[in-house]
Specification:
The complex is a heterodimer of chains A (about 190) and B (about 350). Chain A has about 190 residues and is an all-alpha fold. Chain A contains six helices and two strands. The chains are: A mainly alpha (about 190), B alpha+beta (about 350). At the A-B interface, helix 1, helix 2 and helix 4 of A face helix 1 and helix 8 of B.
Chain lengths: ~190, ~350
């Protein structure tokens, strides 16, 4: 294993920070819409700024990905698995960027102020509209479950690479530093 | 590289089982969080559904409660006195636009006005910088019950066909008696403009130096309330309140004084069935001036959710459990009715059938 076959440390950092953020976000989402307890307000107040943080991180990550690319998949990986890997990553990027925008648009279309922290509001990005609100609400709801299902597939595939195929794909994004990253080789 | 020796194949099977277990655990945790294993959890869907009369359908496109209403616009004229208690920008002396809705506490948008005991006023005060303060107030002096769960139980009992449901609910919830006393013996009036609207829920005002003040607030009418019996009101027609307020505002604005009551240390903030003693400090912070009435159908209030947790800086929720429950349930009601918007005009009072 050497550094050239891994994502850059910045990419790995972004990946794992976002993994925590997105999983937190999805659990908060399904939790908050199923309770009337006081924690509803706490969860909503985390959901909105965290969603915006994910949007910003996702855009940074996209730029970093364009700049640094990704290590190649193993040459012996079957074509259907390669295809699944590529498509699922496109879908994950699309959802990371689309979900916060859909949520923001949904709140705008309902004429809710979009509050972040301490009196800071985001501007409304859509006019109030029952039809838009309903379409965006449905998209936000169903895509959240699709997002979680994709993450589970992604997790299963990563573990399959790491535990069964042992082909270096898992290590390419593992949250550890390789020796040459700790002490750069002479 | 994949390996094919016997021990490795066995470990591959073990790994696959491990992977399946991890994925299954994650999926189960998600489902648990979503409440799929908790049929008794009080969800906003269950709370909102409980408003629908048993065996009936909710009126499509309408609010699931307080379904009958009429829009108004006007201003909130702050006198500056509120700034001592809260740094809310709409407490700085000046005028702020308001959008609101007079309404009746019923899930039936066609209910006859004289048949509905609880009248409400919803309000959105906005500032030029884009801060909003939404509130939804009602005319009883205390709320029905102490917790959202008890409120759900009340809806279930009052909608139940079991003749023992209400007596046993009342037996289990003595605090409901104070509301019942008001419902039975409190005066009825002939106008939305003669009602006092009470916030009932406790909030925390935060002043400019960070000091916190538990408060409740009310809108006290400038119009003198004249008691009229419900029998007399019934003779005025099913929509007399909407007709009366439209004519009244046509002749000139109606006013309410916004009065903030500050709790003494130890006053209960978590229970809206308990009124604070009448000697508590009360401060007049401004005047609501209603200048125009518009029918709900095409009015600006129809598509606004008067969520009482949409608050400006300087106001936050307290340990009162109701604002959170109302926010959650109002959002569900909003999601449902906006999805039914195409059905709204047909179900509106007076619309072509």
């Amino acid at each position: 294993m050497n550094g050239a076959q891994r994502f850059t440390p910045l990419q790995r950092l972004l990946h794992w920070v976002m993994a925590v953020c997105i999983l937190t976000m999805l659990f908060i989402g399904v939790g908050m819409v199923s309770t009337v307890e006081p924690k509803f307000l706490t969860l909503v107040s985390i959901h909105k700024p965290l969603g915006m943080a994910i949007l910003v991180l996702a855009l940074i990550r996209l730029v970093v990905r364009w700049r640094y690319g990704a290590p190649p998949l193993p040459v012996d990986l079957p074509e259907p698995m390669k295809l699944a890997a590529h498509l699922s990553h496109y879908a994950l990027y699309a959802l990371m960027i689309a979900m916060p925008l859909i949520g923001w648009g949904m709140l705008s279309a309902a004429a809710y102020p979009v509050k972040l922290w301490g009196g800071v509001n985001l501007p409304s990005i859509l006019p109030q509209s029952d039809a838009l609100h309903t379409a965006l609400w449905n998209a936000h709801f169903y895509l959240a479950f699709l997002f979680f299902a994709l993450i589970l597939m992604h997790l299963a595939a990563a573990l399959f690479h790491g535990l069964v195929r042992r082909d270096g794909v898992f290590e390419s994004m593992a949250p550890t530093l390789t020796r040459d990253e700790v002490a750069p080789a002479e | 590289m994949p390996v094919t020796s016997q021990p490795a194949a066995r470990s591959a099977v073990g790994s696959l089982v491990l992977i399946a277990a991890i994925v299954a655990f994650a999926a189960a945790a998600f489902a648990y969080t979503a409440g799929w294993f908790s049929p008794d959890r009080l969800t906003p869907t269950r709370l909102v559904d409980a408003f629908t009369p048993q065996g009936g359908e909710p009126a499509p496109g309408h609010r699931r409660n307080h379904a009958k209403g009429i829009c108004f616009t006007g201003i909130f004229e702050a006198n500056g006195a509120g700034a001592e208690l809260s740094r809310a920008p709409m407490f700085a002396q000046g005028q702020y636009p308001v959008l609101g809705r007079f309404n009746l506490g019923t899930p039936n948008p066609d209910a006859a006005d004289a048949t509905v005991r609880v009248r409400g006023l919803s309000l959105n005060i906005s500032t030029p910088a884009g801060q909003e303060w939404r509130m939804a107030m009602i005319n009883p002096p205390v709320f029905t019950v102490s917790t959202p769960q008890a409120f759900y139980d009340l809806l279930r009992a009052s909608g139940s066909k079991d003749p023992n449901a209400m007596p046993s609910f009342i037996g289990a919830h003595p605090e409901f008696g104070k509301f019942l006393d008001w419902a039975k013996s409190g005066p009825w009036t002939g106008s939305y403009a003669e009602e006092r609207y009470n916030g009932l829920n406790s909030f925390i005002f935060v002043d400019s130096s960070g000091g916190e003040h538990p408060v409740r607030w009310s809108l006290i009418p400038a119009a003198h309330p004249v008691a009229v019996s419900p029998e007399e009101l019934a003779k005025r027609g099913p929509d007399f309140l909407e007709q009366e307020i439209t004519e009244r505002i046509h002749g000139g604005p109606a006013r309410w004084t916004m009065q903030v009551t500050v709790a003494n240390p130890g006053d209960p903030t978590a229970d809206p069935t308990v009124a604070w003693p009448p000697d508590r400090r009360a401060i007049d912070v401004g005047t609501l001036i209603v200048r125009e009435i518009e029918p709900e159908r095409d009015g600006p209030c129809r598509d606004i959710n008067f969520d009482p947790t949409v608050l400006p800086s300087g106001v936050r929720t307290s340990d009162d459990p109701f604002p959170a429950a109302r926010s959650s349930a109002y959002a569900k009601s909003y999601d449902l009715r906006t999805a039914e918007a195409k059905d709204y005009p047909r179900a509106a009072p007076g619309a072509a059938q």
